[in-house]
Amino acid sequence: MPYNPTLVAPMREEMTRMGARQLTTVSEVDAALGDQKGSMLVFVNSVCGCAAGNARPAMRLALQHGVQPQQIVTVFAGQDLDAVSRARQYFSDYQPSSPSIALLRDGEVVHFVHRHQIEGQSPQAIAADLTAAFDRHFAATV
């Protein structure tokens, strides 16, 4: 059963304020990730404490970096069940995790951050990992 939309609304809005596009349906996920060109960040949002306390603040910090993905999209675990399931098919080599962050370049996952890599880390440490990955994988596509 999905989370109450009122509960997740502030967490969704936090991501859209950062420029992320919400993908709430399978067709929206396929339109964004299918035959994807360029660089993309896919954030699997979550209500868990580590997402609220670490992942979204880390995203905010990382998205202030000079090198960024061309597209930022998000799906919400526990809310948009079908959309999350479809998004995870695009990075099926990685165990399902929420929150998680997938960096894609031309449809291929080039960096993945699991929940266990978020838990116990400061937003600054997570952001440093992301910005290093942005530099390594996206500098040529900006």
In brief:
This protein has about 140 residues and is of the alpha/beta class. Helices cover about 45% and strands about 20% of the residues.
Number of strands: 5
- Report mean pLDDT, rounded to a whole number: 94
CATH superfamily: Glutaredoxin
Identify the overall geometry: globular
Would you state the CATH class? Alpha Beta
- List low-pLDDT spans: none
Order of helices and strands: HEHEHEHEEHH
Overall description:
With 142 residues, the chain is an alpha/beta fold. It has one domain: Glutaredoxin (3-Layer(aba) Sandwich), CATH 3.40.30. Helix content is 46%, strand content 19%. The chain has six helices and five strands, in the order αβαβαβαββαα. It has a five-stranded mixed beta sheet, sandwiched between helices. β4 and β5 form a beta hairpin. The model has no long low-confidence stretch (mean pLDDT 94).
